[in-house]
Amino acid sequence: MTHKTDDWGLLLTAALEGDSRAYAHFLRAVTPVLRGVVRARGAALGEAGCEDVLQEVLLALHLKRHTWQVGTPVRPWLYAITRYKVVDAFRARGRRIDLPIEDFADVLPAETGVDPTQGADIDKMIGMLDPRAARLVRQVGVEGDTMAEAGAKLDMSEGAVRVALHRAFKQLAVLRKRHVE
After folding, report:
1. Which CATH class is domain 118-180?
2. How far is it, in rounded angstroms, from Cα 180 to Cα 136?
3. Burial class of residue 114 in the structure, from the number of CB atoms within 10 Å of its CB (0-12 exposed, 13-18 middle, 19+ buried)
4. For 132-151, what is each residue's pLDDT tens digit?
5. Global pTM value
6. How many whole angstroms separate alpha carbon 119 and alpha carbon 83?
7. What per-residue confidence (pLDDT) applies to 41?
8. CATH 1.10.10.10, the chain: domain bounds
9. Helix (H) or strand (E) holding 75
10. Class of 3-99 per CATH?
């Protein structure tokens, strides 16, 4: 055992006996070592992920400090808790890989313009309406005609256009709900 590890055992023993200064000193002494272990084992988690794991380790040490048996080596107990917290972080992350988008913002700019699939989706949904309602939705909703312009093209009053358009939109909402679920 090294002198440093012996000091950790003495500090943790004093902390378990109620010495808050010894406990604070113990945490300050082990934190840099634990940070190194977390970074070595969890490098794929990134800098922020490693710091999150380190905080989890320190919290676990605080909550489970009573499980350390006085007189036994401290380092294996610390490493076991650290190892399990790193494994937990990888499990929680699953198979996803986080890459900061800032690194790619200049390289992969998004193309401006309308989503090419949007028109097909709109046409498909409107095609499910009766022909008159479909024509009305296309004129007002897609082409941007006013109620009066759509009424003139369809030989309907402006009020009748409003009512028919409301019903058509209501029917579209029902159709969309069926196809999304």
Report:
1. mainly alpha
2. 24
3. exposed
4. 888 888 888 878 888 888 88
5. 0.50
6. 52
7. 87
8. 118-180
9. helix 74-93
10. mainly alpha
Q: 90 falls in which pLDDT band (50, 70, 90)?
A: confident
Helices 158-180 and 118-126: crossing angle in degrees, nearest 10, is 110
Residue 57 · residue 82 · CB < 8 Å: yes
Examine the pLDDT at 82 and tell me if it is beyond 70: yes
Token pair for residue 73?
């080596």
Q: What is the distance between the alpha carbons of residues 11 and 68, in angstroms, rounded to a whole number?
A: 12
Q: For the chain, what percent of residues have pLDDT higher than 90?
A: 34
Structure tokens at 128: 């499910």
Within the chain, all domains assigned CATH 1.10.1740.10 are found at 3-99
Whether the Cβ atoms of residue 137 and residue 172 lie closer than 8 Å to each other: yes
Length of the chain: 181
Give 94-110 pLDDT, tens digit per residue: 766 666 667 666 666 65
Residues 6+ away with beta carbon under 8 Å from 164: 132, 133, 136, 156
DSSP string for 10-43? HHHHHHHTT-HHHHHHHHHHHHHHHHHHHHHH-G
